[in-house]
Amino acid sequence: MSRVLVVVSAADELVLADGSRHATGFWAEEVVESVRVPREAGARVDIATPGGARPVVDAASRGEEFDAYLESISDELASPLVLAEVDPADYDAVVLPGGHGPMADLAGDPALGKLLVSFADAGKVVAALCHGPAGLLSAVREDGSFAFAGRRMTAFTDEEERQGGLAVPYSVEARLRELGAVLETGPAWSSTVVVDGTLVTGQNPQSSVDTAQAVLKALA
Questions:
Q1: Regarding the domain delimited by 3-219, which CATH topology (the fold level of the hierarchy) does it fall under?
Q2: What InterPro entries does the entry give (predicted)?
Q3: CA-to-CA dists, residue 111 to 8, 59, 157, 185, 208, angstroms
């Protein structure tokens, strides 16, 4: 049985480019499918957050179907694993769903960075979706090298940010490029998934199911 760790942002707000604070959290569809798809395929899935804090769903992402599934895993969301206490050896894959939350906490989380470097060096599956790739920014080794430099990936694009109308504090796409990642993006709001060996990335919420299915293929 494959073992999957879903790392969810615990941030409930994002400081925007103008200094104002925007209520945020995780994107419902992305967490739902990151958990549901592998579980339905027989994988064991655990949820972790920074500090073991209860994550908050972004109100803009809620919907009847997603709310129902989140309610079914409400006990797990109420008491997630503490990210810093996770042993990488216990898992075959780590998945970072989005929402703007990861830009606020996962991007600079040292525990996540250590975990991701361990996974990258061991050739284990690493997946990130939408703004989840902001979490990949934490994967910098002690020598300053980026664990995913030279790797092909996608992320929520600058064009999608522009169309979404939120003045985010930085461009996830640009920062990944600066660290040496090779960004491949599809049309705005298209289901776009990029697979580079054991690195799986999805561009936006529309890519949620396809990203989760690509994780299963990479595990197989």
A1: Rossmann fold (3.40.50)
A2: Class_I_gatase-like, DJ-1/PfpI, Prot/Nucl_acid_deglycase
A3: 13, 27, 26, 28, 25
